[in-house]
Amino acid sequence: MSYHFQDEIAFLGIESIPGFVKAPESNGVAEAFIRTLKEQLLWVQTFDTVEELARDPAGV
Fold first, then answer.
1. Of 15, 21, 34, 48, which residue is most buried, by most CB within 10 angstroms?
2. pLDDT tens digit string along 30-56?
3. Quick one: how many helices (H) and strands (E) in the chain?
4. Residues 14-28: what's their mean pLDDT?
5. What are phi and psi of 10, to 5 degrees?
C-alpha cells in the first residue's frame, strides 16, 4: 500500500488487515463494508416532513 493511503486510513481510524488468498469470507466482509458505505454516504435522500419519509417506497 502507498504511504499516502496508509496515512489516510490511519487518520480515519481504520485498521488495515490484509486479505488472504482463497479466503472468500474476506471478500464478503469487504463487499458488506462497501455496501454500507454507499448506503450511508452516497444514497442519501432528504425529506422535508415525517409524512414524506413514511411514503418513501424504499423504506429508508
1. 34
2. 888 888 888 777 777 778 888 887 887
3. 3, 0
4. 78
5. -65, -40
Calpha distance 42→35 (Å, rounded):
10
Amino acid at 17: I
Residues 23, 36: Cα–Cα separation, whole Å? 21
Total-model pTM? 0.39
Q: Are 19 and 27 in contact (CB under 8 A)?
A: yes
DSSP 4: H
Q: Counting Cβ atoms within 10 Å, is residue 26 exposed (0-12), middle (13-18) or buried (19+)?
A: middle
Using the predicted structure, report yes or no on whether residue 60 has a pLDDT greater than 70.
no
Contact 6, 16 (CB under 8 A): yes
